[in-house]
Structure formats: structure tokens, C-alpha cells
């Protein structure tokens, strides 16, 4: 062990990640900054070495630790299975004046991290952290300079948006790394008219660019963000959702990774739960190729408060995870990638981020979901938008993406996987949702020409379809309360077990299918529901046992009344089967059409025309 006296350190290289004492963090997020044993082996404080070793030109990283007092400083590392070992141990002798911090510099080679591993430090004895930072070694040049714009699309969410803008404005160090903060306002209320906007406008100054346009969905808004960033001459765009809590430090980390990346790289941030700050949505996102469906790589909903980075349940976090795409809750896209592969696919909402990541990878531009770069977002577990108007876009855009990108003949199993989902919706009396899915199939069969033209109209058509369908229609809160009080208390909880798997699916589904096809419901229209279920339990294997079920609304307000209708069941099932067979039969022809059309659909010129944004 070496004894050192901290001194004035030489000029550092680029700051890659800043580390602060856990006490300075949001109380709910402290588990992400400090491990239970007091070490800095924590999500935001440790350095994800395997990602930097694999994806950047750096061969070493420099740790600079400013401390007061005296004690032991350990630089430690893990490998891909989570096993920890020392890299360097120093005995630090502090200044006689305990209030004067000193800086100790350590260097760690980025070797042996091919499959995974982190770096972190620990302080023992009387050493107290003032500040630390992970730096590029002095003299190592960045591959490219990045001064991206922030791109936010908003729709009547000023309660979330204004704090995001205020947070960005307050961190002047990170703000100086940015070009513009582009806000695309697609709402029915103007952001500029909201109380508090003038303050953030003044704080952001020349960085702020506010654009007003009709509601063209997330893809229309983010395409505008991309286009405006290119027109401004920015080096890229950091896509941000409007309903998040943002970490400027995470933006810095994404920018630095992009600057040192070996090739132009899409750098995504992780998503944590807004209400459980230590819970991670997913470590990385992938596409299951044969089904062409998104999935998480590794366990989902990992809670660092319960399972810290070095905990026995967290060894998988030390393996480097490959991402097929990153959600557009936070995602940095370099301008070089935008110019090479185009802007967002005109999907309105759903699958635009996944399709973009797959498209980028095919062109040689990888996606990295970077640990330590993150935002907080309302959990997706709190809503099920597949049965709302978004269900149309889930179905259509998955198929359109597969037609462009699937490498399997006939799209692999995507058509029949979609049909299987349709059966499940029908078993749950989700007739409105299935009408939307069948319309999605028809629109896919009609070809890609209508994607841009329908951006402003499809949401209205989808909502009209749902309103015209009795089963599953939304019930206002006042009426909902009166309805549920009429349900017998014995039928308030009617769920039966977890999602069936394997042969259990057939055993559970067959009697419900036969009942739906053969048995006519004779329940009077004015009779109250037979049972009530919370949203989480309102699945086909539960709902399908009843003719009439009340359940909560996935958006959290009021409820929905699910009523079995044999004629609707038969008609929609037959229609879904016919459309699925047609899709499978025409897949080769449709795939050629969509692949040929794709470059034009995402081109800057096409989007300029759709957005009515002429070139400056």
C-alpha cells in the first residue's frame, strides 16, 4: 500500500461523470449514489467501465477524488459475474487544516472489461468526500465534439415540462454543453401562456427555441426536434419526454460518451420510476427477432434500494448489455446519424424509437443504453394503453416495422403472434380494442403511402371507434361509483391466478373461446356487472369467465364496463383471422413496398413538407 499526501492535481482531461456525496442527492434516490456499506459502488457513483472500454477510444480512466481528513482510498473493480477486487489502495494523509480539501488522482486501465464490469472507490477511516470525478486521461482527444440540442415534445403537460426546463436552466455547466433547448408544443393549451414559463424562458435565454404545431404525435414532434436541431447546426439532439424528472448530470455523461465513441453512437439513458426513485425500468431494450416484439434484456423493475449494485441479486448488472434501441424518454442521436438514416418514422406514437434503433444498427450505428445516464418517468406499470386508442398504433407500427426490418421469411411469427393477441383481447371482451387492431391490419395491407397523411387524423378516428363500442367504453367517475356499488361484495375480487403459460394457455382459453362462439349472453342490458376487478387482474383468463365485468380505467380515472357479445366476438374473430391470413400471404410483396418507401418516409424533405417547415 502506498501513502500519499493529496496535492494540487495537474490539469484534468474531460470530465466524464461527476460524483457527489449521497447527502446532496434527492432523499428517495440516495440508494443510487451510495452503497449500504458506505462505498461508492452505486448506480450513479460507480463507473460503467465495460461500456466505455467496448464503445469508446479510451484505454484508461482517471479518478480524481477531493477529500478532507486522512484514511484509506480504494479503487476497486468487478468483472462480468460481479466478483470484486482491488485495483489500487492508497493511504491518504490529509492537510492539517481539516477544512482544506486535497485531491488524489488514480488511473485505472480499461482492460479486462470485454464482457462486463464496473469501477468504483471506497473511503475508510477519516476520509470524507467533497467531490469526485471520472475523467478521460489528460491529452486524450475526443473523436468528435458534441454540442447537441435538447428536443422535447409536449402535449398539455406543463406541470412536468416547466420543472424540466427549470432544471436544465439551473445547471449552467451542463447548459453550456448544449446548443438549443427545442420545445415543440402540440397541446391545446399554449406553454408560453402558462404561469412560470416567463421565468424559465428568461433563464434559458438564447438556448430556448419554442415551436408550435398541430398534434402529430410523438414521432411528429420528435421529427420536428430532429429537423430543428439540424437546421440550427447542432451536433445532435437529446430526445426527452416532457413528463420526466431530468438529471443534467446524466445528459453530460451521454454527451461525453458520444464524443469519445469509436463510431457515431446513439446514447440512451435509463428510465427510473418517478414514484419509486430507486426502481429501474430496464437495463437495456431489445427486439425478439422472430416475433419482432420488444423485450427487456435482463430482469425488469430492479430496485437498487433492495438490491444494491454489489448485492447477490444484482450480479447480472455487471454483464455488459447490448441494446437494440433505447426508449425516447432520453436518447442522444448524433447529427451524423440523422443525416445518414433520416428522421423518425411517421408512426404518430409507438415503435418509432424501436424502429429507429433497428434502422440505425443496420446502417452501422450502434445504440448504447448507458448506465449512470438516466431520467425518472411515470412507471409504465401504472397504465395499459394497449386497450385505449394507442392500441391501433401498437398493432400497425409493429407490423410496419417488421415489414421493413424482419430478416425472417414471411416475417417469422409476427403475424400469428399478433393474431394470438387479438384472440386474447376478444376473450376479455375488448371489442373496441380489437376493432382498432383490425383497422390497423387493413391499413398495413393498404401500403405505406398513407402514413404521413394520417398523422393528424388517426387518433380522432381511433377514439371515435372506441366511443361507438359499448363494451370497454370509458365510464365517468360519478357514474362509475354508482355502478360499482351495485355489485355484490362477494364478487368484488374475482381474479384467478397469474398469467397462464405453456399448455395452461390452451386449457384456460379453449372453454372461453367455445363459450364466446356458442353461448349467447342473455344478461339484461340494465343489469349490473357480475364482478369487479382491479386493472391488473382484468386479463382474458379472468374477464372471460363472466358476461359482464367492471374494471378500472387504465388511465386511473373512472372505469370500464366489459360486456360479452357473441355476435361481436364471432365477427371480429373471423375478421382478424381473414386479415392475418392475407398479411401472411402478401408479406413478400408488402415487405418490398415498405422497404422501398422507407427512405422517403423518413427523409428530411418529406418531413419538411408534412411539417410545413421550409428550409431556411
From TrEMBL:
Pathway: Cell wall biogenesis; cell wall polysaccharide biosynthesis. Residues 419-612 form the Galactofuranosyltransferase-2 C-terminal domain. Its EC number is 2.4.1.288. It is an enzyme of class 2 (transferase). The keyword tRNA processing does not apply. InterPro entries: GlfT2_C (IPR045699), GlfT2_N (IPR040492), Nucleotide-diphossugar_trans (IPR029044). Belongs to the glycosyltransferase 2 family. The keyword Transit peptide does not apply. Residues 34-137 form the Galactofuranosyltransferase GlfT2 N-terminal domain. One of its GO terms (molecular function) is glycosyltransferase activity. Keywords: Glycosyltransferase, Transferase. This is Galactofuranosylgalactofuranosylrhamnosyl-N-acetylglucosaminyl-diphospho-decaprenol beta-1,5/1,6-galactofuranosyltransferase. It comes from Schumannella luteola.
